[in-house]
Amino acid sequence: MTTQNAWPENVIARYLTVGGATVDLFEESGYYIPTPPTQTRAHCNGCGTEQTEEWGFSIGAHEYGREQPAEFDTNGQWATPRAHRWAQSHAETCRAIPKPA
Hints:
101 residues
């Protein structure tokens, strides 16, 4: 029987890797702005790899249906889905096993 532990604080999504570790997604403040959240970060608890998607002005915003190429990504509406896609892709291939507690 598998037991489930509570997710760590501020985790908004979790992906299970091939090796049994997890990739956790966080919405958090960046380095320069204390609050509210300004980025979505994915962290693999197996191999330690991370991917951060900033919610700031996006030069590539036009690729996601915006007419203006440099607009603020309000609430991470483009950054957060990119982080989810990265986490899913990483989880599908990462063979690192969970680190011991």
